[in-house]
Amino acid sequence: MSSPDNHAPPQWPLRFFRWYCHPDYVEDIEGDLLERFERRLKKEGSKKARWGFTKDVVKLFRPGLIRSFKTTIPLNYQSMLRHNFLLTFRTFKRYKASFFINLVGLSSGLACALLIFLWVNDELRIDKFSQKDSQQHYQIMTNRTTSNGIQTTEYTPSLLAEALEEEMPEVEQAISIVPPLFYYLGILSVGEKAVRTTPQFVSEGYFDLFPIHFKQGDKNALLSNRKAVSLSEDIALTLFNTTDDILGKTVEFKNSYYNGLYTVSGIFSLPENTSSRFDVLFNYDLFLDRQPELREWYNTEPSTHVVLQEGTDIDQFSSKVKELFDTKLGRNTTTTYLTQLYADKYLNSRYENGLPSGGRIEYVRLFSIIAAFILLIACINFMNLSTAKASRRVKEIGVKKAMGVGRKTLIIQYLSESIVLSFLSLLVALTLVTVFLPQFNTITGKQLTLNLDPTIVIYLLCLILLTGILAGSYPALYLSGFNPAVVLKGKFASTLGEQWTRKGLVVFQFSLSVMLIVSVLVVYQQIQFIQTKNLGYDRDHVISIPREGSVNERFNSFQSEIEKIAGVVGASAISGDLTGNVSSSNRFGWEGQTPEEKSTRFNFLDVDYGLIELLRLNLVAGRSFSREFSTDSSAIVFNETAIEVMGLDDPIGKTVNFFGERKIVGVVEDFQFESLHKKVEPLFFKIGDSWEEGNVLIRLEAGTERATLDQLQQFYQAFNPGFLFDYTFLDEDYQALYAAEQRVSTLSKYFASIAILISCLGLFGLAAYTAERRLKEIGIRKILGANSFSIIRLLSGDFTKMVLLAIVIGLPVSYWVAQWWLEGFAYRIDLAWWYFIGAGLIALLIAWLTVGLQTIKASRVNLVACLKDE
Question: Rounded distance, CA 689 to CA 686, Å?
């Protein structure tokens, strides 16, 4: 038996009909629909009657007309939309120049915004794997007091994770990871195939926090077997030419710490949104077995990750970690701990006074603001060009208003124009993004793709709707507000407020352009400063190769042989490198040391004889290491900052204590062994007594690099079989420290150029508007004897004033922005006056060139054409 609801027509078609149909005819047509439903209900039953009612409603929405009933009635919204679209395309066709300029400006702005959106969206996804990662997954960071303030690192005691899990109830899970470190790089080989790999050591629970996808094998097999190894897909393909049927096969790993044969237990791939990059996974217990000294609480190297219970007080937890560390060590220390949300660490990786103070998040914000500004500038262009053509459309508006068209209808019409233009611009922008995305990926070092999934499509639709409304709002309100009686008489005149609005928009555009020009100049000069600054050592023509295998075991023989090769100036060894990979310790003592100074940390490098000479470091006191002095194996050489921190006068010959007494034999001038983001810290050299890792530095004779490298490769392969001759130039390693700044510099040039181009389009639009409004004035002036030059000067004067005002507004803001960016460098350029004066002159010159075309055209106007009434 049918329910009572089945005797009523379906409601959703009826509601849609009432909303869509012209309100004047809803009642009559609805009555006819309901009569038909009642007749069907009696003859055919409720099911067929409801289905027939739905079909009757659908028939109403044929294009343009209702044909199902005796009366032919136009539909309200459908007809209006068709009419507005038709007017829009006719307007585009009539005003081709302004349409083309608007299309170029909006499509360029949207393309820039889309590229920046793809980059920002990718940055914001890094290391965000799940809801738990965003709210409960934390990393413990170590804060140590140095002479330059608090130094924050990710290195923690190897026993910390186990202790936290056992002794702190708020810790749900704790794991240890040995991140990819330069001295654990090694050669992985199968037969004659070998490849240099980056290993990572992981403890139990690692795969609960990091979603590593295993394509083959069991991830738990790695955690239960210290002789197991898991390989990335790329490494597996390199070694075996396949990823199939290689589980259980044996590979050899060559490294000073972890030489040996290992069984392949799995093949994995890394998620795209992880910041950690490695090729091989080892068991964490293997790491501790091979380096048992790291089981002591005072030694640090692994990083510690924890999952905390919801609602945990993070500051209080950090204090408890310090108390635990001091208890385990048996004394109070100045070491403190920072508990940082792991999902935030990638974007907030710079620290000041032991707290996050920015990092890549600043570039995310910067480029987001640039995208918004570029899009806003493009929208301003549409406003200016629309009002510039207002005098040509006033009669059209007057006629429509005289025929009874309301202001609301006109506003909808002009908004429709801007939305349609935004949609067309989006199509062009998508084409531009597709074309330039590979080059954009090269600049940013990413693998971005434009996938039009439903979420992206919704974002894009919202973007064009927002852009269309923003760009068309002022013209729609402005044009629809004309008085029909006035404009039909030809007495159209803009108000003072309208003039100031248009001029203010141009001033705003060029203020942003001035800021971008200054930013480009400052970033370029800072990068040039970085590249050319005297670092205190000579990095040119020096290559670095890993000290491994036979090179490590028989270094003296290797050194003497390669120095015989033509083109080799000299060779030596170093435990780390000169890009920040140095060791540090606070177990250092000297005469007159105060109790507070006992926690001072010193950086140090184990070196071989001849290293100071090879790098051409400047000795300010004493001498370098020499084999002629047998006691130099326990000697020490400081930099100037270390001597200053210790407060030693006349240090040569004095002794310090670092795992035994050491005699100071020399002091070198401060040199930059880390990024220029940091100030030079205390450092000392000592002769390496146990070379378990490090690099060989070889200086080549200038101009002979290619031939010398070929000879070195042949000799290396014979001397050190099974290892790869992988070398890097010291100056390239140094440049790699500033990859982010280089990318910012390159991107800022492109985006600044586009913003300036779009701003010029806006100025061009206002020039066109001014020339159009002053045609009769120009004609009268020419009749009275004014020449073309005076006309050009007259029309350009207003624009010059606007640009000068933009310069006055933009320069102070750009100075503040430049100062903010430079604060991230310990060594930076001084902001010279010519950066700002130069930027202003560039903006003024661009404005004059842009306006020049319109003013020259206006000065040559036909007198008859400009004086007669249209």
Answer: 9
Per-residue CA distances from 268 to 74, 259, 607 (Å): 63, 22, 38
**Confidence (pLDDT) at 69:** 37
Burial 700-730 (b: 16+ CB within 10 A, else e): beeeeeeebbeebeebbeebbeebbeebebb
Cα separation, 106 vs 98, whole angstroms: 12
What was the pLDDT predicted at 514?
84
Our CA angle for 610, 615, 619, nearest 5°, is 80
Q: For residues 89 and 103, what is the distance between their CA atoms, to the nearest angstrom?
A: 13
Report residue 784 CA to chain centroid gap: 60
CA distance 774 to 761: 20
Candidates 230, 246, 320, 318; CA nearest to 280 is 230
- Name residue, tokens 């395309």: 89
HEC secondary structure over 786-810: CCHHHHHHHHHHHHHHHHHHHHHHH
Inter-axis angle of helices 46-59 and 26-44, nearest 10: 150
Report the run of H or E that residue 356 belongs to, with start and end: strand 355-358
Cβ atoms of 350 and 735 within 8 Å: the answer is no
Hunting for tokens 């980059």 — which residue is that? 119
C-alpha count within 13 angstroms, C-beta hemisphere, residue 602: 28
413: helix, coil or strand? helix
Whether 267 and 231 have beta carbons less than 8 Å apart is answered as: yes
Helix ranges restricted to H, 720-832: 730-736, 739-773, 775-783, 788-822
Where are any strands of DSSP class E within 575-711?
583-585, 589-590, 602-607, 619-622, 635-639, 655-657, 661-668, 683-687, 695-700
Q: Are strands 280-283 and 199-202 parallel, antiparallel or unpaired?
A: parallel
Distances in Å between the Cα of 127 and the Cα atoms of 58, 209, 271 are 50, 10, 9
Exposed e or buried b for every residue in 349-360, given b needs 16+ CB within 10 A?
bebeebebebbb
Show the low-confidence residues of the chain (pLDDT under 50). 1-4, 63-77, 870
Residue 607, token pair as written in the block: 């070196």
Question: What DSSP line would sit under 40-95, residue for residue?
Answer: HHHHH-HHHHHHHHHHHHHHTTSSSEE-SSSS-EE-HHHHHHHHHHHHHHHHHHHT
Distance, CA of 609 to CA of 600 (rounded, Å): 27
β-strands 695-700, 683-687: how paired?
unpaired
With beta carbons less than 8 A apart as the criterion, state whether 639 and 683 touch: yes
Question: What count of other Cβ atoms lies within 10 Å of the Cβ of residue 444?
Answer: 18
Using only C-alpha atoms, what is the Rg of the chain?
37
Beta partners for 197? 186
Q: What are phi and psi of 347, to 5 degrees?
A: -85, -20
DSSP letter for 689, please.
S
Please write down the HEC assignment for all residues of 305-345: EEEECCCCCHHHHHHHHHHHHHHHHCCCCCCEEEEEEHHHH
- For residue 36, what are the contacts with CB-CB under 8 A and spacing of at least 6? 52, 53, 56
| Per-residue pLDDT at 73 | 39
pLDDT score recorded for residue 831 = 86
Helices (H), 232-308: 233-240, 284-290
Q: What is the pLDDT of residue 133?
A: 61
In this predicted structure, what is the pLDDT of residue 10?
76
Tell the residue number behind the tokens 């310069």, with chain if given: 807
Instruction: Find tokens 């702190």 and name the residue.
Output: 168
CA–CA gap between residue 219 and residue 153 (Å, rounded): 29
Cβ atoms within 10 Å of 213's Cβ, excluding its own: 12
Task: Give the three-state DSSP class for 193.
Answer: strand
Straight-line distance from the first to the last Cα atom of the chain, in angstroms, rounded to the nearest whole number: 76
Strands 228-232 and 260-269: parallel
Distance CA 457, CA 9 (A): 36
pLDDT at 200: 92
